[in-house]
């Protein structure tokens, strides 16, 4: 096969141009999809709460922030629980801001029992 | 006693040890030494051990004389009696009408190939790399890229290394040094090392220049392991202290629906634009869809653990087994090592320079250090961006920002491979 310098540069320029075109098209599409979802979320937030912020009570309780310390939970534990809730909410598609009002232990089943139950029932 | 000694003597002369001292046997010894060095790097230095260790051991196996692990299946001719041959292959002379059978005094018989020859078909036919991509897709979070789609441009910029190295490899061929010439297909396979993506490099080389698979795979994985050594000097050289100190805004949260739509969109756009990239990008996105859909946990678990581990073993050992003495111990291998390093450096520089452009256009909102992560090598390249940024300002967390270009680089190198395969394949 006759191969010239013109062919070499042709391949190099074609390659880099195609890579850029593909990724620029993806930028545009992903950006548009992102904007659509942002506007949907904004509308939802606007409808559900007047000021655009929602409050998620993990477990309903009459007391607000003060009881956290009284329960013996350190600030680090509260931060970790809040981060975990944020992570789960994001994974489930909930992107609204939230505020943790109180944290309280729920359920009587031992956590290890729960873990064992989930592990054994997951395949089904 | 003499019979025993004779038998032992025969055993010794027919052994692999004796073969080391026969024609070209010393080359096998050198290759075994190289394999041992690679095993040392994998075990002691932990340089990409998951692949470097099986590659090194495959290299060791194939260079054991008479081991035959990569032997092709052969058609051998077994002598038969003239009468047997005549029964099977009677040949009648059309002029005289007499039967002749001397011509067919042998019968064909097929022998099986070596173990690794059969496992190697997964590389040769382009099966293993897409399966690895399936597992990678299951483990990759495209969230940072969806949150900041501009990162795609850095993933594209870092592919500059591939195409500039392609020119470089052919320029070396043009000089005309004996043993240092590359065909355009070989140049494309060497250049793909700059994508810093092992499965992509193996897939492309398997399609375009399978004879160079060993050196290219070793170079690609070695440099991927050396990313923390190669990239920081280039990053520091091309950026100012002020640029390295930029603290980027927190990324927006990405909804689950966006994450589910992303692999479908990427598959449609990329595979329609570059159809030859479909096996790689398609499997990567299938894995990611498995993960993000959240409804096939068992498949995700299998793809990212058992399947990926099995394929990694087969891929590593068989790629290593292509590095026999005849192909590996050549001036081409040395050139591939240097060209691979060049490709990595240019790719890193391309990403950082585009990062600088984004820094200028966004009026200082983008830290150019995240550009170097565009060379794939997930997640090592992103960690390097984080480390270099944190060295300037310990409270600057660039990791999630760098993950965007990092995963964009995987898509970018897949597209680049698709372009090269469509041109030369």
Secondary structure elements and their pairing?
The complex is a heterodimer of chains A (124) and B (425).
Chain A: H1 5-48, H2 67-70, H3 75-91, H4 111-121
Chain B: H1 2-13, H2 16-19, H3 25-43, H4 49-62, E1 74-79, H5 82-88, E2 91-92, E3 99-100, E4 106-111, H6 115-124, H7 128-139, H8 143-147, H9 151-157, H10 160-175, H11 184-191, H12 198-208, H13 213-225, H14 227-238, H15 241-244, H16 256-273, H17 278-293, H18 297-321, H19 325-328, H20 331-361, H21 380-392, H22 399-424
Antiparallel strand pairs in B: 1-4, 2-3
Helix pairs in contact in B: 3-4, 4-13, 4-18, 6-18, 7-12, 7-17, 7-18, 9-20, 9-22, 10-11, 10-20, 11-12, 12-13, 12-22, 13-20, 14-20, 14-21, 16-17, 21-22
- Stretches of chain A where pLDDT is under 50 for at least 5 consecutive residues are 52-67
Report the mean per-residue pLDDT of chain B as an integer: 89
Characterize the overall form of chain A: elongated
Distance between the termini of chain B: 62 Å
| Number of separate strands of chain A | 0
What's the mean pLDDT score of chain A?
75
Helix content of chain B: 55-70%
List the uncertain runs of chain B: none
- End-to-end C-alpha gap of chain A: 59 Å
Largest sheet, strands/sense/barrel of chain B: 2 strands, antiparallel
Order of helices and strands of chain A: HHHH
Helix content of chain A: 55-70%
Assign the structural class of chain B, choosing from mainly alpha, mainly beta, alpha/beta, alpha+beta, or little secondary structure: mainly alpha
């Amino acid at each position: 096969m006759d191969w010239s310098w013109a062919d070499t540069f042709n391949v190099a320029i074609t390659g880099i141009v195609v890579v850029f075109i593909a990724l620029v098209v993806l930028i545009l599409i992903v950006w548009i999809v992102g904007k659509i979802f942002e506007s949907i979320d904004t509308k939802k937030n606007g409808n559900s709460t007047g000021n655009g912020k929602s409050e998620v009570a993990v477990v309903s309780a009459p007391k607000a922030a003060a009881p956290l310390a009284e329960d013996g939970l350190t600030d680090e534990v509260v931060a970790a629980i809040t981060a975990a809730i944020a992570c789960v909410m994001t994974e489930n598609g909930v992107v609204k801001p939230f505020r943790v009002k109180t944290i309280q232990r729920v359920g009587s089943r031992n956590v290890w029992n729960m873990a064992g139950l989930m592990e054994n029932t997951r395949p089904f | 006693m003499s019979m025993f000694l004779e038998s032992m003597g025969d055993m010794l002369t027919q052994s692999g040890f004796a073969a080391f001292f026969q024609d070209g046997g010393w080359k096998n010894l050198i290759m075994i030494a190289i394999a041992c060095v690679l095993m040392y790097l994998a075990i002691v230095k932990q340089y990409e051990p998951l692949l470097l260790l099986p590659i090194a051991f495959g290299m060791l196996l194939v260079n054991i004389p008479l081991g035959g692990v990569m032997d092709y299946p052969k058609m051998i001719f077994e002598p038969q009696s003239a009468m047997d041959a005549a029964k099977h292959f009677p040949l009648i002379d059309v002029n005289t009408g007499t039967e002749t059978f001397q011509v067919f005094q042998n019968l064909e018989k097929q022998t099986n190939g070596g173990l690794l020859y059969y496992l190697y078909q997964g590389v040769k036919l382009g099966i293993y790399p897409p399966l690895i991509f399936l597992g990678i897709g299951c483990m990759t979070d495209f969230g940072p890229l969806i949150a900041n789609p501009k990162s795609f441009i850095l993933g594209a910029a870092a592919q500059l290394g591939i195409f500039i190295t392609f020119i470089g490899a052919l320029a070396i061929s043009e000089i005309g040094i004996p043993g240092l010439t590359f065909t355009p297909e070989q140049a494309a396979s060497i250049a793909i090392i700059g994508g810093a993506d092992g499965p992509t490099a193996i897939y492309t080389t398997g399609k375009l220049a399978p004879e160079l698979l060993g050196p290219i795979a070793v170079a690609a994985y070695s440099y991927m392991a050396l990313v923390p050594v190669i990239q920081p000097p280039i990053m520091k050289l091309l950026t100012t202290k002020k640029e390295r100190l930029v603290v980027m805004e927190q990324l927006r949260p990405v909804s689950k629906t966006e994450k589910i739509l992303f692999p479908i969109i990427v598959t449609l756009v990329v595979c329609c634009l570059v159809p030859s990239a479909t096996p790689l990008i398609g499997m990567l996105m299938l894995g990611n869809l498995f993960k993000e859909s959240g409804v096939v946990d068992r498949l995700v678990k299998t793809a990212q653990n058992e399947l990926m581990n099995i394929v990694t073993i087969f891929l590593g050992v068989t790629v290593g087994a292509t590095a026999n003495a005849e192909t590996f111990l050549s001036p081409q291998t040395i050139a591939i090592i240097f060209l691979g390093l060049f490709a990595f450096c240019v790719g890193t520089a391309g990403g950082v320079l585009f990062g600088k452009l984004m820094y200028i256009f966004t009026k200082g909102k983008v830290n150019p250090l995240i550009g170097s992560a565009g060379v794939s090598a997930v997640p090592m390249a992103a960690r390097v961006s984080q480390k270099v940024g944190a060295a300037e300002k310990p409270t600057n967390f660039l990791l999630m920002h760098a993950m965007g270009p990092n995963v964009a680089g995987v898509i970018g190198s897949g597209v680049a491979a698709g372009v090269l395969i469509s041109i030369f394949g």
